[in-house]
């Protein structure tokens, strides 16, 4: 069995978000979970070939299985490219717990379809949120647009948390134990904090998911996919088939660039993509 370590949403080693990738024929989920706990990446992907066009991919954090993972999908198809299991300028299908989704591979740039976008409840207790993140509540929201904390999903539920300034975003210091309990009670994976106060890209983001053993993540494709739909719903983004750039990981010294795109105007969907670089490759015995 082949095992890769791949940095996703970056073109340089030690940038972006690292993922483990295992290409296998018949591993059981108990092994997958133990292996993910052993290597301790935020997510490890396990790929099984179904046929020349379709791959089953399962995603595990160090503590549990999750339905979908953007950066581990990018990493997976980078590994499949290197292994010559897929080719450039082709579209493939991947079976996940979030559904069967398409993945486009174009000149080593990988763009994945997200699950059907959904918006959930809003969160109006700014005092409690401010305490969770150790900021003043007046920094929650947006300077020019009426944005509110709200659950959103394109495969995984996260709370979109608007922050007024980049300085305030960088200053977030979550109470991870309390945040894990808060997200568990509200049936979401984590909190995706973002600000529109950026000179480059649409938004700068930080993602916190202690419920699944991930205090902070350098690049989260599914969360930025959900953020794209959230911003579309709130009339910040309105162009279809146009690439949007989201920045993440700068607070962790792992700069990441996540590209998203709104498609299918009559029934909007979100695509998420990026580059990846292979750090190492080996075998599992």
SSE layout and pairing:
Blueprint: E1 2-8, E2 17-24, H1 29-39, E3 44-51, E4 54-60, E5 65-66, H2 70-82, E6 90-96, E7 99-106, E8 109-113, E9 118-122, H3 126-133, E10 150-153, E11 157-162, H4 166-170, H5 176-185, E12 190-195, E13 203-209, E14 214-217, H6 221-233, E15 243-248, E16 256-263, E17 269-274, E18 276-283
Parallel strand pairs: 2-3, 4-6, 11-12, 13-15
Antiparallel strand pairs: 1-2, 1-18, 3-4, 4-5, 6-7, 7-8, 8-17, 9-10, 10-11, 12-13, 13-14, 15-16, 16-17
Provide an overview of this structure.
- This protein has 285 residues and is of the alpha+beta class.
- It folds into two domains: 2-114 and 274-283, Roll (Diaminopimelate Epimerase, Chain A, domain 1), CATH 3.10.310.10; 118-270, Diaminopimelate Epimerase, Chain A, domain 1.
- It contains six helices and 18 strands.
- It has an 18-stranded mixed beta sheet that branches.
- Strand 4 (54-60) and strand 5 form a beta hairpin.
- The N and C termini lie close together (7 Å).
- The mean pLDDT is 96.
- Keywords: Isomerase.
- Its EC number is 5.1.-.-.
- It holds the Pfam family PhzC-PhzF.
Supply the key terms.
Diaminopimelate Epimerase, Chain A, domain 1, Putative isomerase yddE, 21% helix, 6 helices, Phenazine_PhzF-like, isomerase activity, 285 residues, alpha+beta
């Amino acid at each position: 069995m082949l095992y890769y370590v791949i940095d996703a949403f970056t073109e340089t080693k030690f940038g972006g978000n690292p993922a483990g990738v295992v290409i296998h024929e018949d591993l059981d989920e108990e092994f997958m979970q133990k292996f993910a706990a052993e290597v301790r990446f935020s997510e490890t992907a396990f790929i099984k070939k179904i046929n020349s066009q379709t791959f089953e991919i399962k995603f595990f954090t160090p503590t549990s299985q999750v339905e979908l993972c953007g950066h581990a999908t990018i990493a997976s198809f980078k590994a499949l490219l290197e292994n010559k299991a897929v080719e450039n300028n082709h579209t493939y299908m991947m079976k996940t717990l979030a559904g069967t989704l398409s993945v486009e591979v174009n000149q080593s740039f990988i763009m994945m379809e997200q699950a059907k976008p959904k918006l959930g409840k809003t969160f109006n207790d700014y005092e409690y949120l401010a305490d969770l993140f150790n900021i003043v509540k007046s920094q929650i929201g947006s300077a020019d647009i009426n944005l509110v904390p709200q659950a959103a999903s394109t495969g995984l539920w996260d709370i979109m948390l608007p922050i007024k300034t980049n300085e305030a975003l960088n200053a977030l210091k979550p109470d991870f134990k309390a945040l894990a309990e808060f997200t568990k009670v509200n049936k979401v994976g984590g909190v995706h904090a973002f600000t529109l106060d950026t000179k480059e890209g649409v938004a700068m983001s930080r993602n916190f998911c202690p419920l699944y053993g991930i205090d902070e993540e350098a690049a989260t494709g599914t969360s930025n996919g959900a953020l794209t739909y959230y911003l579309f719903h709130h009339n910040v983004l309105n162009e279809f088939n146009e690439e949007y750039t989201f920045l993440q990981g700068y607070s962790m010294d792992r700069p990441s660039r996540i590209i998203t795109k709104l498609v299918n105007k009559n029934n909007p969907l979100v695509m998420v993509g990026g580059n990846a670089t292979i750090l190492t490759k080996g075998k599992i015995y």
